[in-house]
Design a protein that fits this description.
By secondary structure, the protein is α/β, with parallel strands linked by helices. The protein is built from 16 helices and 10 strands. The protein is globular.
């Protein structure tokens, strides 16, 4: 079928994706026999032999230390859900080009044709010598938690599930500035999170780590608390970390009464009447895409600061603000892992870039702010050294 007969020909989105969004490019000249003999045989054998004698030399003489595997099984892609590995490839390519554009990191998209936890873990472990880090992407909960934990145990390179931790880092950065704008302290703020999947769990954890004392998380059945008999092990641990500390239970609407902050990562809908019951000068981060849990126009009737996951409204909570710089910093420090301290440092660096520009429509910098990647990378690398996981 020629291009003109194709049903998507002429659509600018499809035209941009034609042939994919990335390619392999040379980083060295290869124009004659001299270069060929060094880049391949016989010269390459000397480099291989040296690495065989001292494996650490791979960090200097291969692309490994600057390359991340972007790994998915296609089970939780964007707002599309379980669409399988082939359909997930355009998103993984997109992630890889963002790594390159905003962090100078080479990303390789890998879509696995299995949803079995053991098979995914074993496959990634066997591929790991080819990469300096692993970025897990769009893997459904609760399997994503086990996969990440098991890979962290078995690998001595950074393993990062961006749907969890990238979202959490950017959310914390934006929240720090929103709290500053509304005159709140971290310790006295009450937060309600809707969505107990990968992002919701990670956001709750990082907020508690950052000093927020009153957090509760809700799912379709209401507040995730230990008085419920239907909790998975992940949700039971979440309940103990959050709602149980203040005895909170009931519905989302009940939890929102008097709350300072609402963070939505659920894809559901919050009634306007419930938003109206929140505290004065409240903060609403409705981050579901493409349809926020609370439309910004509605949220602004009651909230002082409103953020979404969309680029056509102010204050976009966008993971691209975090993951390229986090991996850049981890690679620069030759970190063996990405610690909680490194995530908190990334959030602090992001928040600090807003500075005197802080306003209701400016609590987080733009992804195109050239300071973002370097600032996050520097903070993450320093935190890696402080946390004792740096090798450089």
């Amino acid at each position: 079928m020629n291009d003109f007969a194709h049903p998507y020909a002429g659509d600018p989105v499809f035209d941009l994706h034609r042939g994919g969004k990335m390619q392999v490019a040379l980083s060295v000249p290869l124009t004659g026999t001299a270069e060929l003999s060094m880049a391949y045989t016989p010269g390459v054998a000397r480099v291989c032999s040296a690495i065989a004698e001292d494996p650490s030399l791979a960090q200097r003489y291969t692309w490994v230390p600057n390359t991340v595997a972007v790994v998915t099984d296609g089970t939780a892609v964007l707002g599309l859900g379980d669409i399988g590995p082939s359909a997930a490839m355009p998103v993984m390519e997109g992630k890889a080009v963002l790594f390159k554009q905003f962090g100078g990191v080479d990303g390789i998209p890998i879509c696995l044709d299995t949803t079995d936890v053991d098979e995914i873990v074993e496959t990634v472990v066997r591929m790991a010598p080819s990469f300096g880090g692993i970025n897990l992407e769009d893997i459904s909960a609760p399997r994503c938690f086990e996969i990440e934990d098991r890979l962290k145990e078995r690998l001595d390179i950074p393993v990062f599930h961006d749907d969890q931790h990238g979202t959490a880092v950017v959310t914390l950065a934006a929240l720090r500035n929103a709290l500053r704008l509304t005159g709140r302290t971290v310790e006295s703020t009450r937060v309600v999170i809707s969505g107990a999947g990968a992002a919701g769990v990670a956001i709750a954890k990082i907020l508690v780590e950052a000093g927020v004392k009153d957090v509760c998380v809700t799912d379709r059945k209401g507040v995730v608390s230990s008085d419920r008999a239907d909790l998975t092990p992940v949700k039971r641990a979440l309940a103990e970390l959050t709602a149980d500390r203040h005895g909170r239970s009931g519905t989302l609407e009940e939890a929102l009464v008097g709350a300072d902050v609402y963070i939505g990562v659920s894809g559901g809908t919050v009634p306007e009447e419930a938003v109206a019951t929140m505290a004065v000068d409240s903060i609403v981060f409705a981050m579901a895409n493409p349809d926020p849990e609370v439309h910004p126009d509605v949220a602004r009737r009651y909230a002082r600061v409103v953020a979404t996951g969309r680029s056509d409204f102010p204050n976009q909570i966008n993971n691209v603000l975090a993951f390229p710089g986090i991996f850049r910093g981890a690679f620069d420090a030759r970190a063996t892992a990405i610690t909680e301290g490194m995530k908190l440092a990334a959030a602090e660096a992001l928040a600090g870039l807003v500075g005197d520009e802080l306003a209701e429509d400016m609590v987080i910098p733009s992804p195109f702010d050239p300071r973002v990647g370097p600032a996050v990378a520097a903070a993450v690398a320093e935190a890696a050294r402080e946390d004792g996981v740096a090798r450089a």
